[in-house]
Write a structure and sequence with these properties.
With 98 residues, the protein is mainly alpha-helical. It has one domain. The protein contains five helices and no strands. The longest helix is centred in the C-terminal third of the chain and has 23 residues. It is globular.
């Protein structure tokens, strides 16, 4: 995971103006990795920065709230897995019905 941490931080710091909309998702990935490594200080800092760029970003807000509430990482990961499955199921059913 140290490589992932460096990658997300590197990419977020080097986004050029045409691609600055990618910074909040990159900072969210950095926050997730650092939180999983028990580094809540870096995670919170990355999420605060992401929120300053996009205050309405849903994933940033969700993760920031979870960290501040002390939510268990594995429980949150399971919530994400369920949401992803539901989203994929919905997409799948939408493509089979005209």
């Amino acid at each position: 995971m140290p490589h992932a941490r460096r990658l997300w931080g590197y990419l977020a710091r080097r986004c050029v103006p045409l691609h600055t909309d990618l910074v909040p998702p990159l900072l969210t990935l950095l926050a997730w990795v650092t939180w999983r490594q028990d580094d809540t200080v870096t995670a919170r800092h990355a999420l605060k920065e992401a929120l300053s760029l996009d205050p309405a970003h849903r994933m940033v807000n969700l993760l920031y709230d979870a960290i501040n509430r002390g939510v268990d990482r594995e429980e949150l990961l399971e919530v994400f897995r369920i949401a992803l499955r539901e989203s994929l199921d919905q997409d799948h059913s939408d493509t089979h019905h005209p």
